[in-house]
Each structure stands twice: as C-alpha cells, then as structure tokens.
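New to this. Help decode both lines:
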Amino acid sequence: MSFEFRLSAWTLGPALLRCSVLLGALLATVSAWSAQTLTISVVPQFSARQIFSDWTPVLKIVGEKAGVEFKLNFYDSIPQFESGFMRGESDLAYMNPYHMVMAKNAVGYQPIIRDDANRLSGILVVRKDSSIENLSQLDGKKIAFPAPNAFGASLYMRALLAREAKINITPLYVKTHPNVYRHVLLGQAEAGGGVNRTLNDEREDVRSQLRILYRTPEVYSHPIAVHPRVQPELAQRLQAAFLEAGRDPANAELFKNILIPKPAKSTYEEYAALGALKLESFVGKSN
C-alpha cells in the first residue's frame, strides 16, 4: 500500500505540479487585477448625477484598454473636492488649471491628459435684458460664482476684476455653474462667472436669456492628473488608453460629454506659468 501510494504520487507529481503552478498564476492574476482598482474624482462643475452619467461610459472603455477598474469619488462642492485632492484622496483627478498648480505643490499630482480642441476662458454673464454694458457698472454689485477657486469662472475672474477693472464686488458662491446661471436669471445676482463649455451645455431657454459681458484670457484646459503613488508605467498606460479611446470616432460623443473632445498628452509645464499670476490672495479656503 505504501509502495502504491508513493508510485501514485510520483506518477501524478508533474500533473499536480502543473496544476499548482497554474492555480498560483491564476491567483496572482486575480490578486493583481483586484489591486488595479483606481479612484478618480471630477471637479463638481455639474451635479453628481450628471458626472456619473457622463464619466462612467468613458471610464469603462479606458479601464478595459488599460486593464484597470475605476471608482468615482464624489464631492458635494468644489471646496470639498479641493480638500480631497489636497489630501491626495484620489488616484486620478480631473481639475481646473489652477487646481493643477495647487495639487502639484501640495501632493505632487502630475497631468497626463487634457483637451486639445479648446482652451479655457472664463466668462462673465448678465441677463440679456440687463442695462449693464461694461465692467465698471458692476462696482459694488453682487456677482455669483461656483466657488472661490473655480479657476476661469471665479479665481482668475475675481483677480482681473480687482486688478484690471479696479472694481469691488460682493461674491456669492453657489456651488455649481448651472446654479450661477440661474441666480443671474432670477435676479439674485447682477452677473455670474462661468466658462464657455458649461454655458454651451445649458438648455437653449437658459442660454438665450444670458449675455456674455466679459471673457478672460485663454489658458490650457482642465487636465486629468495622477497621484504620485500611481506607478509611472501605469500612468503611461492610462495616458495611452485615454488617447486611443479618444481617437475612436465611435467614442466622440462620450468624450465630448466629459469636455475632452480631443484628448492630448499633458505636462505640468503647460500649467506652471499660472503660478506667476500671483493669485494667492484670491484663493479661498476649502471647507
């Protein structure tokens, strides 16, 4: 009996060994796959519902190409989003240009993707029937903004109003771009800060009642940035996956929905100059 057992074990040994190796490889693959779940946050210019609807299809396609899965982190407001990336909570984050400067300085985030079809320009809107025709008429008036550090819509805009137009205003922070436009329409603010892309995304009955009074100079658009804990090889794989998915005509509408209709490689050098604008005195605290 002992001999037969030893013979059986010797005969089956190579097969058992192969099974063991295959099982080990399978377990390692499953383990590696599960470790490839990445968190991503999106600056809440829009509602969480819209962000989920717009970003989920793109992240599914990109995730399949890069061999990862994405989990969206949601924030109720832009200040909360800022607190999140300043603590490095998400592996990836879609943020405004000055957020990129803040995130790089605080944590070391690096941009990998931005839109190459459009530059970002802040806009100041008033009601179409408003008597206001120039910035000087807004001196002492209440102006709605999404949040203190929404770059084109608020931070850069407020700096230019103070430095160039030399007017004093009363800022009203209302969390999102759609809220800004509705505050202006309802007469709860004389004017409101936004950006072209969010205004264009509005319903026609909203857009038709607003008039653009002023535009800021253009800068590079919002980047998708990666936390330094994301390994360089993985960051390059993610960058390649976004570029490949964005070139596919079948995905054109999906990438348009996330405001990156033409994905391009991005580097921090494209945003570093924003630090020279000396906007520190206009930066609001995150809460």
Summary: The CA atoms of residues 79 and 286 lie 4 Å apart. The chain has two domains: 36-119+221-282, 122-215. The mean pLDDT is 88. The longest strand covers residues 37-42.
